[in-house]
Amino acid sequence: MRYSGFRVFAQGLTGNRGWRPAWRKPAPRDAYDVVIIGGGGHGLATAWYLAKNHGITNVAVLEKGYLGSGNIGRNTTIVRANYFLPGNSEFYSHSLKLWEGLERALNYNVMHSRRGLINLFHSDAQRDAFARRGNAMLAQGDDAVLLNRADVRRMLPYLDFEQARFPIHGGLYHPRGGTARHDAVAWGYARAADRRGVDLIENCEVTGIDVENGRVTGVQTSRGPIRARQVALVAAGRSSQVAAMAGMRLPIESHVLQAFVTEGLKPVIDHVISFGMGHFYISQSDKGGLVFGGDLDFHASYGARGNLPMAEHVMEAGMTLMPMIGRARVLRSWGGIMDMSPDGSPIIDRTHIDGLFVNCGWNYGGFKAVPASGWCLAHLVATGQPHPVAARFRLDRFATGHLLDEEGTGSQHNLH
Amino acid sequence: MRISCPCCGPRDRREFTYLGAAAYLDRPDPDAPAPEWDAYLHLRDNPAGRTRDLWYHDACGSWIVVTRDTVTHAVLAAEALA
Does A314 reach chain B within 8 Å, measured CB to CB? Predict the structure, then answer.
């Protein structure tokens, strides 16, 4: 069923009785060309681009829980392309371009909103660094505007401009940055992949990966064995456990990252604002809730909820930046499990086992990367060659020293 | 989360700084081949469940090996390092 304004209108006149489930619930078949482990944003996007760009539709996506039950639903929904390093810059730029055509491509409303992202700076040195980053973004073909204090004050009058500790000197404005509806991204890719014949198999936990003579031959699952010529691990949050089934140790340590949402309010925050000095970023959802997040809890964790010290720190940062937030009441908080890589950048690569691919290490950046991640992994699986914009996301870059350390904080998992 | 510092007793998690997995203690020989150093520096078991990791108590300067559960956040043991 194709979605359209006319369809909504016609259904509204006939009691909305004609809607059908957005995807099938097939039983797993004995064999597929490609098996994707993980039915989150990245896995579903990979399935869709395999079908759409490469005509490979004999594909199964295996999901332990329900589709989109992982980090695709546990983030702060920010979409941006404001990276600096070659390797990251072209990848996220490609992703943003895909976001901008995503709803038309998927025939699904993912509520992508280019409301603009503003990164605040608080010193001359930070201004220089942001000017340089802005130039890198412009050189990449994306947009960036350096704002002075008066500009920021005009756009964000509710910030505390009088504070002494982190005086606001200006901001780097990325007009094409924004947000999207997180669940809808998973649902949109799922529905589009299903329409192309991909089998989306929920409640199907992979319990083993079969390897014979250095080549992957299939997977063992809670719903029986499935043979496959190619297998892609797309299980960020549980990457290490899935890779261990193939005898691999990954350069990943899992950390919990918390986020919060307030009760619904009238429109008050028009942009995405990031306050790096306080590890705080905020936007307002279409439902009216203020969605904000902070930094890692800074210890290895698989608890999909955080500890109170970081919750307190995030609230303090919010109060420091915009005292008006103190009037809002927090409704919920949640934690997502981040694959932290040693340099803070992701991995999309083949492994030492033929036919086995890995997509992991998304750190904080997984949500905005969903379209390009799926695009590039599908390209790698289908052609055997890395996509040019993801060619530096190599699994062996830590051993060879070709790090992509965007923050320049060092090659250690807990520093990003 | 509270960690029992061997010097100071049970203290709030805020007083501690996390370094990483206790595998950092198994430093390879300086002449060890590169893959061994790569594994030491970058590769992690990253268990979901019981793990051992290194923490620094900012208040008293102790390095501590903490045994804890990464899923429940339960702290099971804390021993002074050396």
Answer: no
